[in-house]
Structures are given as structure tokens and as C-alpha cells.
């Protein structure tokens, strides 16, 4: 049984702690390590890095983790550590990941890869030049609802896909009378906040992987709630966008329209839902479920303002069955990345893919600022090591 050191930075944060440390790295170890194709198991030795020795030490102690430090450089120098993982606030990511690449570590990071396209491209190029494996979290692709949607698409269920409509959001409390359920940096532009930079990278990989390349974007980003109260109870000016209304034109003429908002109240079955309409059928996918209606089962609705509707439209849809047990999506992607590092398994979620997501966010903000439709050019990136 071999052991691989994984330097984890940002584990005191929401994502770093719950999804990546607890539900991925420690859960993998709890099940005997990551399983490679020949059946060999590899255990992970997390090395926690943080700015506050007390916080990171307490967290390590709580989970029986031996190694923790505030010195990223020292953790990266240790040759037993093969992988660097980053779930810090977005604005702190690029510098730390460059440091890890320079130390020869394979790098896996939360999205967005970086706060700007220039920074994301520089990271993608540095990783390729150094020949290190690189990956970005694309967790929504591993959601049961989205996997079921993909099952329908792969089966040719939709015929020709016409349009995609996405609705994402929920009310994030302002922090005055009820505490906010997201960190305050999300609402400050100078700290790398904003819903476009947060969510457009997600929409990019979902659209690109399921329906085709994003060729143009038209977006309107706004700040609906301009004042909030932070973690210390201090009021602050919320100057980052907290809602974005976007139209994405995809290869093949598919039109996707996605609303993203932290200032909307939920009247949906799930916090995110995508409706896909095709010539042969339609589907509505959420985090967990996916419902579909085939053209042969499509009722004939009749518009009648005189009579209250008695038809229960939702009852006219069928549910895609689970047919399998879906693992935690973050963990599933960790296992893919580790197999990519340890036995060269394929891993399409690389920094180049991450950079395309950041590009869409940047062009979405440009579209909003200038009030126009913006084409999305292909990025000029070198092929990964060993390809092309
Ligand atoms: N994949 C997803 O669905 C998803 C969801 C939410 C957030 N994220 C991403 O994960 C990253 C972290 O988000 P989060 O919600 O966990 O944030 P968070 O505020 O809860 O955690 C941030 C972490 O970064 C550390 N940090 C380092 N430098 C910092 C600085 N200068 N200021 C503040 N904190 C600093 C903090 O100590 C903490 O460990 C972001 O890049 C975000 O885009 C991804």
C-alpha cells in the first residue's frame, strides 16, 4: 500500500472543509484509499495549509491529521507531497498555484481557476510547460440530475436540441436580521466576488460538455442588494454583481438562457434546474432528479383565460430512474484526478477547460457593461504534455 501526500490549502473554508477534506480526501481514506485500475490502493496523506496556525491546527486535531502548517513553501518542498490542492478565496489562488507548479507538484483547484482570463491562461501555460497534471473542479457534471440528463442526451432522446433554460438561485440573507449563508467576499468586487465569476464557469462546462461549444454571450449583470452586513456584524457596500441574466449561443444553433441570482426566492423543486427542449422530447434536470416528456406523450395544451387550469402539467412527466448509486460528485472527481496523476487515466477537466470558463465570465461582464452580444473566440493554448 503506498501513500501520497496531498497539500490542501483553504480547508478552513466552506468548500475546502466540507466537500474536499471531509467528503473527498478523508472519505476516500475511510474506504481504504483510491483504487487504481489493477486493484492497487493508494492512501492519501493530507497536509493542511492555512494562514491561521490555531484554526488549521484545531481542524487537523479534530480529524486526527498529523501534518499542518502556515508555511506553504515548506509543504511544497517535501518530496513526499505529490499534489497541491487549492480551495482558497479566488483572489489568492493564482500566486499559490504558480508556487506549486514551480515546485513540480500536480495541481488541482476549485473553480474559477483564477480571477481573470490572463491569470487563468498563465496558469494553464505554466502547468503545461512544467509537465504537471492539472485539474479544476467541475462538480455540477457529477450531480445525479445532470448525469441523468446526460444519459438522455447520450441515448439520442432529444432529437435536435433547440434550447436550454437554466434557473439557479436562492435568497442570500443580507446579514442584518439573519446571518448571510455565503462569505462576504462574494459580494465585494475587489475581493474577487460576483455571481458572474462564480457561476458562469459552472454554466460553461455544463453547456460545453452536454450541448456544445459556447460561441457567443449576451448578459446583464446587476447588483440588486447594495448593502450587506459581514461576518463581524459590520455593514459593507456590496458592489459585486449578485444576479446575472445570460443568453449563451452554442454550436449548432442551440440557445441557452440561464438566470443566476442570490436575490431570488425559490419556487422550484431544486436550487438549480435546467429545462432542455428538443424536437423529440424535453427534460427538466435538477441536482438530484431528472424528468422527461417524449414527443409521443406530449399533451395538447389549450390556451383558455376564461377557465382555471385543471391540468397538472408536472404530472405529465416521467422520472429518469437512478439505476445506480451516485457517489458524492466532488469525491468522484478527486478519484478521477488522482488516477490521472497516478496511472495516467484521462481527465478532461484541465486548466484549459477552466480558462474557458473564466473567459465566459469575463466576456459576460463585458457584454453587460457594453450592452451588447459578445462572440467567444477559441483560446490559443498549447496541447497538454504528450499530445499533438
Ligand atoms: N465548486 C463549487 O460549487 C463551489 C462553491 C462555492 C465556492 N467555490 C469556490 O471555492 C473557493 C472558496 O470558496 P468558499 O465559499 O469555500 O470560501 P470561504 O470564504 O468559506 O473559504 C475561503 C478559504 O480561503 C482562505 N483564504 C486564503 N486567503 C484568504 C484571504 N485573503 N481572504 C479570505 N480568505 C482567505 C480562508 O482562510 C478559507 O480557508 C472559491 O474560489 C469559490 O469560487 C466553489
From TrEMBL:
The keyword Oxidoreductase applies. Residues 147-283 form the GFO/IDH/MocA-like oxidoreductase domain. The keyword Oxidoreductase applies. Keywords: Oxidoreductase. InterPro entries: Gfo/Idh/MocA-like_OxRdtase_N (IPR000683), Gfo/Idh/MocA_oxidrdct_glycsds (IPR050463), GFO_IDH_MocA-like_dom (IPR055170), NAD(P)-bd_dom_sf (IPR036291). PANTHER family: BCDNA.GH03377. This is Gfo/Idh/MocA family protein.
